[in-house]
Amino acid sequence: MILTIDGVRKSFTGPEGSVRVLDGLHLDLAAGETLALTGESGSGKSTLLTLVAGLDAPDEGRIMVSGQQVNALDDSARAALRRTTVGLVFQQFNLIPSLNVAANLAFQARLAGRLDMPWLEEVTGRLGLSDLGNRYPEQLSGGQQQRVAIGRTLAARPALILADEPTGNLDEAAADRVLDLMLELSRDSGAALLMVTHSKRLAGRLDRRVHLSRGRVA
Amino acid sequence: MWRATAGVLASHWRRHPGQTATLLLGLALATALWTGVQAINAEARASYDRAADVVTQNGRPVIRDPSGADIPLEIYVALRRAGWPVAPVVEGRADIAGRDVTLIGIDPLSAPVLPAAEPTEGSATPETDTEGLIAFIGPPGRLMAAPETAARLRGALSQDVLNTPDIAPGTAIGDIGIVSQLLGLQNVITRMIVVADPPAHAPPLAQLAPGLEQLAPEAGADMAGLTGSFHLNLTAFGLLSFTVGLFIVHGAIGLAFEQRRGMFRTIRALGVPARTLGVLVAIELAIIATLAGAVGVGLGYVIAAALLPDVAATLRGLYGAPASGALALRPSWVAAGFAMAWLGTGIAAAQALWRMARLPLLESAQPRAWALASSASQTRQALAGLGILCVGAFAGWLADGLVAGFTALGGLLLGAALGLPWVLARGLAFAERRARAPLTEWFWADTRQQLPGLSLALMALMLALAANIGVSTMVGSFRGTFTGWLDQRLAAEIYLDAGTEDRADEIRTWLDPQVDAILPQVWTEAELGGEPATLRGLPNHATYRDNWPLLTPASGVWNALERGEGILINEQFARRTGTSTGDVVRLDDWTAPVLAVYSDYGNPGAEAAVGLRLFSQLHPNVPQVRFAVRLPVADAPKMVEALQNEFALGADQMRDQAALKALSLEIFERTFAVTGALNVLTLGVAAVAMLTSLLTLATQRLPQVAPIWAMGLGRTQIARLELLRSALLALGTAVCAIPVGLALAWVLLAVVNVAAFGWRLPMQVFPSDWVGLTALALLAALAAAALPARRLGRRPPADLLKVFANDR
C-alpha cells in the first residue's frame, strides 16, 4: 500500500467550541490506484489531504505513506516526504508568481533532485503548455494555471498525488480534459492519485470512490 | 534543493525590480545618514590627534607649570644638566596675514618626532637630512604647516613655509628660536617633553623644579574637551538618524517578507524544510544588507564630504581647534556604516524570520499580516511605549549628566513612536463614528485598516519631524539668546588693539576729545576656585551696567564691583562648581564674594570679572592696549577710517561692532548648518520609507478597492481618496510630532546641553517653523502617495475584475 490511514481523528477549535472533523477514519490506497474522495462541505475531505501531506498532524491515529508514519516524522522529514514522495495539486494553483511557466513546471522536480528533461517535455507538451513557457502565472487564464499546477506535480514523478478539487475552477468540458490528462499521466508515471472532488461525474471516472460523511467513510 | 530554493528567492527580486530598488534604497539611505555623521566625527577627531601627536611628541609625558605660566629657560638647562632627557617647546598664537595661527616651536636636536615635509618646490634633487636640519634651524628658518595654512603664511613671513600634511590646519611648527622670535618670547619656554625615561641616578623633578608638574600624556585632551560638545550634538543627531534608519530598515525588511508570504507558504508545502528556507533567507538578507551597506557608505561619504568644510570651519572658528576640510576613507566609519546595515537588517529579520518559522502552512496565501494586526497588539505596543516614555522622563527629571540626557532622548523618541499608531487609530475611530455619509464612513474605516501597514513609515516620519522640530527649536533658542548676548557683550561701536602701551597712550589722547568713552579691555590668567580661569577688568561705565548679560541681576552689583567688594563669575564656572550669587570663591590669593553670574556663550573655561581699578591693583603689569570705543553709531565708520589714516591700524587691529557681530553670527550659523542639512536628509529618508510602504500596500489594495469600484466609485476618485488618506495620516503624525519635538528640544537644552557645554539656554518656541514643517510633511506624504495613487487610478478594469474572478 502506498497510503494507509488508520483510525485518524482530528478536531478544530472554533468560536462554538471544539468541532470533530475526522472521526476514526480508515482508508487504504494501493500503488498506481486512483481514488476519489467525495462528501459535503465540512465532511473533512480537504483536512484529510493536509494530514496525508504532513501539512498538519492528526489528534489520533496513524497515517502511513510509502512505509513511513507521517505523523511520527519531524518537520524536516515531513518536508522531505512532500519533496520526494508526495505531489500536491492545490485548488488555488499556488504557482510561484516570480517564476515563468517553464521554471514553475520544473521546480518540484528540481527540489526532489530528479529532473528528467524528456519526461518534463512530454508532460509540458501533453498539457498543451509548450508555447507558454516564457509566460508568468499572472499572464495565464485559470485553466492554464491549473494545467501548470498539475504539470509541476507530475513532472516530479511522485509516488502519491494528492489533488484538492483540481478542476474546481473549470467548466465541465475543461474539467474533463484536465482530468483525462491527469489520469493518463499519473498512470504513465505509475503514481497513485487521491483526489478530492464535489463532482460525482468526475469521481465516477476514478478506480474507486469513497464518500465521507461527518468525518467517517459513509 | 538548496539551489532551486535560492533561485526561487532570487527570482522574486528579479521579477520585481521596483521592490528591490525600494528595499535597497531604504537600507542604503539609513546607512548613509549614520555613516555621514560618523565620518564627520572621525575625520575631525583624527585632525586633533594628528596635531596632538606632533605637539606631545607621540604621547610622551609633559612637564609644565600648573598655572599655565611660561617656564624660565634656566630650569630647562638645569634639568638637562641633571640628566633629564627633555625637549623644550614654545607655543602661542599669532595674527599672521590677518589670520590667527598657532605657532609651535621645537628643538629639532632633542625632539624625537619631526613632522615630515613634502619635497621642496623647484629643487632638482631631494635635500638630505642635514640640509633639511640646517634650513629648519635657519636663518631665516623654516616653518612647516598644512598646505592651506602654508599657502597663507608664505609671503607674510620671511621664513620658508613647507607643506606638511601631518600638521593640522591653522598650526605651524618651526625651530624653537624662530618661533620664540615670532611670538616675542625671550628666555622662556611653554613646556618640556620628556622624550625618554630619566636615568635612575637623576634627581627627581620636585627637587630640580619644585613649581613644575609632570603630566601623563593625553592625546588631544585639551581640544577634545573643547570640541566634545560639538561632537556630542552630532552624535546625538547620528543616533536620531540611526533610530529613524532602524525603523526604515525594519519596515523595508518587513515588507520584503510580506510580499513573499504566499511564495514561502507554497515552497514550504512543496517540501522545503523551514530551516532550509530560514538559512537561505538569512543569507539572502545578508547579501542585500551588504550591497545596500556599500551603497549607503558611499552616499554617506558624499554627505560627509559635502558637509565637512562647514564642520571644519565651525570647529576652527568656534573652538580654535584644527580640523581638516578634506575627507579620508577611514575603516572606523566604514565599519560603522556596514554595522548599521547589518544590525538594522538583523533586528528586523529576526522578527520576520521568527514569524516565517511559525507561518501556518494552511492559512491563506494572501499577504495580510499588517492589515489584520489586532487592536490588542496596538494597545500592547502603546503600553510598552508609555513604559519607555516613563523611563525616559524619570531619567530627564531625576538624573544628571550625559547618560541621563541620552536615556531621556532615547526613551522619549522610542516611546512616542510606539504610541503613535494607537493615537492615530483612536483618532480615526473617532472620525469614523462621527461620519454620516457612507463613503466617508468607508474612507475612515479603510484608513484605519491601512494604518498597521503604514505604521512603521509613519513612526519614521514622526521621528524625523520630531528631530526636526527639536533641533530647530534648539537652534532657534541658541540663535535668539546668542544674538541678544552679542548685543550685550559687543555693545561698543569700535574695538581696537593698539599693540603697544606707547601707541595706546597716543591713540587714547587722540581719541579722547572726539568720542563718548574709551573703555580699556583687559584680561589675564588667574586661578578661580582652584582651576585656571580668565580674569577680566570691567570699567565703571553705563555700557556694562546697561548691557552686561547678568543671569541674576541685583541692585547695587555694579557699585559693589567698582568698590572692589566682590566679583562676577561666568555661568560655566557657576554651574560646574555649584557656585551662586552670595557664595564666596577663591580668586588667586583673595577670597571674594560672588556678586552675580553672567552668561558667557562659547567659552568652555572659567571666567571672572572684577572692577577695572581692582584689576589694575591686582595685575599692574597687564598693559592696557585694547579698547572699546563708544561714540554715536552713525559716526563709527568715519572714525574707523580716521583711525586707519592717523595710526595706520590694520584690519586685524580694529573692527567695528557690526563686522564683529557678523563674523560671530557667521560662525554660529555654520555650527548648525550641518544639523540643518542632516534634518532635511532625515525627512527625505522618512518620505522614501512612506513611498516604500505605500507602493507595497498598493499591490495588496485591490481586494479592498475593487468592491467600492464595482459599487460605482470611479478609479480617479479612488486615487484622489488615496492621496487624501496619505495627507491626513501625515497631518496626524505631524500634530503628534510637535509635542514630541518640543520635549526633545527641552531635553537637548536642559539636560544634554548643560551636561556638555555647562550652560542652559532659555527655550524659545517658533510656531511658524511647525507650520512650515507640517506643510513639508504633507508635501512629502503627497509625493510618496502620488505614484501608487496614479497607478491605482490607471489600473485596468480587468485587474479589478480579477478580484472577483479569482475569489480572493
Automatic annotation (TrEMBL), chain A:
<keyword id="KW-0813">Transport</keyword>
<feature type="domain" description="ABC transporter">
    <location>
        <begin position="3"/>
        <end position="218"/>
    </location>
</feature>
<dbReference type="InterPro" id="IPR015854">
    <property type="entry name" value="ABC_transpr_LolD-like"/>
</dbReference>
<dbReference type="GO" id="GO:0005524">
    <property type="term" value="F:ATP binding"/>
</dbReference>
<keyword id="KW-0067">ATP-binding</keyword>
<dbReference type="GO" id="GO:0022857">
    <property type="term" value="F:transmembrane transporter activity"/>
</dbReference>
<dbReference type="InterPro" id="IPR003439">
    <property type="entry name" value="ABC_transporter-like_ATP-bd"/>
</dbReference>
<dbReference type="Pfam" id="PF00005">
    <property type="entry name" value="ABC_tran"/>
</dbReference>
<dbReference type="GO" id="GO:0005886">
    <property type="term" value="C:plasma membrane"/>
</dbReference>
<dbReference type="GO" id="GO:0016887">
    <property type="term" value="F:ATP hydrolysis activity"/>
</dbReference>
<protein>
    <submittedName>
        <fullName>ABC transporter ATP-binding protein</fullName>
    </submittedName>
</protein>
<dbReference type="InterPro" id="IPR017911">
    <property type="entry name" value="MacB-like_ATP-bd"/>
</dbReference>
<dbReference type="InterPro" id="IPR003593">
    <property type="entry name" value="AAA+_ATPase"/>
</dbReference>
<dbReference type="InterPro" id="IPR027417">
    <property type="entry name" value="P-loop_NTPase"/>
</dbReference>
<keyword id="KW-0547">Nucleotide-binding</keyword>
<dbReference type="InterPro" id="IPR017871">
    <property type="entry name" value="ABC_transporter-like_CS"/>
</dbReference>
From TrEMBL, chain B:
<feature type="transmembrane region" description="Helical">
    <location>
        <begin position="770"/>
        <end position="787"/>
    </location>
</feature>
<feature type="transmembrane region" description="Helical">
    <location>
        <begin position="333"/>
        <end position="354"/>
    </location>
</feature>
<feature type="transmembrane region" description="Helical">
    <location>
        <begin position="236"/>
        <end position="257"/>
    </location>
</feature>
<feature type="transmembrane region" description="Helical">
    <location>
        <begin position="672"/>
        <end position="697"/>
    </location>
</feature>
<dbReference type="InterPro" id="IPR025857">
    <property type="entry name" value="MacB_PCD"/>
</dbReference>
<feature type="transmembrane region" description="Helical">
    <location>
        <begin position="405"/>
        <end position="430"/>
    </location>
</feature>
<feature type="transmembrane region" description="Helical">
    <location>
        <begin position="728"/>
        <end position="758"/>
    </location>
</feature>
<keyword id="KW-1133">Transmembrane helix</keyword>
<keyword id="KW-1003">Cell membrane</keyword>
<feature type="transmembrane region" description="Helical">
    <location>
        <begin position="382"/>
        <end position="399"/>
    </location>
</feature>
<protein>
    <submittedName>
        <fullName>ABC transporter permease</fullName>
    </submittedName>
</protein>
<keyword id="KW-0472">Membrane</keyword>
<dbReference type="InterPro" id="IPR003838">
    <property type="entry name" value="ABC3_permease_C"/>
</dbReference>
<dbReference type="GO" id="GO:0005886">
    <property type="term" value="C:plasma membrane"/>
</dbReference>
<keyword id="KW-0812">Transmembrane</keyword>
<feature type="domain" description="ABC3 transporter permease C-terminal">
    <location>
        <begin position="679"/>
        <end position="797"/>
    </location>
</feature>
<dbReference type="InterPro" id="IPR038766">
    <property type="entry name" value="Membrane_comp_ABC_pdt"/>
</dbReference>
<dbReference type="Pfam" id="PF12704">
    <property type="entry name" value="MacB_PCD"/>
</dbReference>
<dbReference type="Pfam" id="PF02687">
    <property type="entry name" value="FtsX"/>
</dbReference>
<feature type="transmembrane region" description="Helical">
    <location>
        <begin position="451"/>
        <end position="471"/>
    </location>
</feature>
<feature type="domain" description="MacB-like periplasmic core">
    <location>
        <begin position="456"/>
        <end position="640"/>
    </location>
</feature>
<feature type="transmembrane region" description="Helical">
    <location>
        <begin position="277"/>
        <end position="308"/>
    </location>
</feature>
